Amino acid sequence: xxxxxKRKVVTVRPEGAITTKQNLPYYVGISQETxxxxxxxxxxxxxxxxGAPKAHYHKDFETAIYxxxxxxxxxxxxxxxxxxxxxxxxxxxxxxxxPHKPINLSDTDTALAIVSRNDPNEHENVVLYEEK
Length: 132
Fold this sequence. Notes:
- The mean pLDDT is 93.
- The radius of gyration is 15 Å and the shape is globular.
- The protein is mainly beta.
- Strands 1-2-3-10-5-8 form a six-stranded antiparallel beta sheet. It has a three-stranded antiparallel beta sheet with strand order 7-6-9, with no helix packed on it.
- The protein contains one helix and eleven strands.
- It has a single domain, classed as Jelly Rolls (Sandwich), CATH 2.60.120.
- The chain has one helix at residues 32-35, and strands at 18-19, 25-30, 41-47, 56-58, 63-69, 71-76, 82-87, 91-94, 100-104, 111-117, 126-128.
């Protein structure tokens, strides 16, 4: 991309959480709607103590996660038979189309993560995955 001296830097301060299709509280940060982003989105995801969203995947888009707080087990793959455990400070990459379901392993503490995708309208491309 070439130099652009006319565009403005955008700051987004979420006023409150929304509930996603996956049934998670989400603080909407950067997206096409909030900042005019063309190729990415970035949000704060909250997983309540003992909580887990509905299993899902992101159609055709990569996901990068930075775990700010907590310990989360992510079930993934066909029938969610594989898993990984991540803790605060870990970076996690989920390829496009991979079914996954994060689970907060604490019954007392909230897990917090910054989630980024190469999709400026990422909520429109979430597909729920039937658990078997």
